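Consider one such protein record:
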Amino acid sequence: MRLLRRSSARPGGFKTFSSLQNNPNYRYLFAGNLFVNAAQWLQFISVGWLALEVSGSAFHSIMAVAVRALPTLVLGPWGGVLADRMDRRKLSMTVQVGMSGAALTFAVLILQDQVTSIWYVYGYTIVTGVAFSVLQPVRQSLIANTVRPPDMANALALNALAVTSMRLAGAAIGGILIETLGFQWNFFVEGGLYVGMMALLIPMRTPYHEASTARLHSPLGNLKEGLAYIVKNRVMLRLMTLNFVRTGVFAPLLLLLPAYTSEALGAGPGIGTAMLISMAVGGIAATIIMSSWGFWTRKGLVSLITLVSGSAVITSLGLSHWIWYSVPIMAVMGLSQSHFIVANQTLVQKIVPDTLRGRVSSVWQYEQGLIPLFSGMIGLVATQVGISWSIIGFGSAALFLSVLFLVRFGDIRSLD
């Protein structure tokens, strides 16, 4: 059995970067995840504005970003199968090469004024969506393969910190490049960031990876085995259910902010941006708290309580018509969502066997593909009753379910 290094963090002291201190291979993965998350948010802002410039349509501006999640609905579970059948490090490197090539090709097309139709933008977004549907479960699995089990929660908290911090950095870099150099440089930089991630994976090793058993069966058999494991394991099924409820109401909020800011608050893009920044600040604060001091109670209870608090924030936003309330309350949203994601992910990754990790991670990530569907449902209701009542309705439904889960899921409350 592999000997585990003793944590270098002093008892009672800060443990913010303990997983990086104790696990040298995770340092490569964490740095690479910073690059990929920066590229992801850089693409998020660039594609939206490019679609608006090419089409002149706010609808296309929203949908060009949202459709990237659609390939996950079909390919996400198969990405998990690949993650369990192949060398995860090499698979990730291969996908990064493809993503870099797509970004650089798209940048050249923009530079040559070839992107004259919105369908070019949709095409690029879908191509990257296909790549991410494979990459997401692989990256999630590699965290557990590069850190020792006691450092899992800290590593996942730092991974969440990479997402929230790069949300700000990617948006800032994208805005500056658009204003100064033009859209093509956003995609040149995006392609370079993918190359950086690939380069960091070359020296990385996976000391906590178990030998794959998936190749003993067919890919279809692998898929059925992964789904059967989730369905038959009551705790795992409940953890997945909690995450799907979180996605159904929390995630669409980012896409609905322009409509909410305009209709409910009577404000412009500046206030919408302030709400995003407030949420990001709350998320960063949450990840620093978790990585430095851990969780304030059992992780299962954290998942349930923060699902309740986040749903309550959503409902209160629907009731609010005051900027002075809606902007700062988004920090609570960021705190709730980041705590939920890290606590829920940690429990899932600690429970699942490594031989099934890719498939289970792909189902956990599957909710990303449902974001356009949930956003469309909320938006459709909003056209009939208004954005405020639509948010109140969906937020109240999530609040009811989350309180029910808190009361009924005793096995989840006791998990740590």
The domain at 18-209 is CATH 1.20.1250.20 (Growth Hormone; Chain: A;). The chain has 18 helices and no strands.
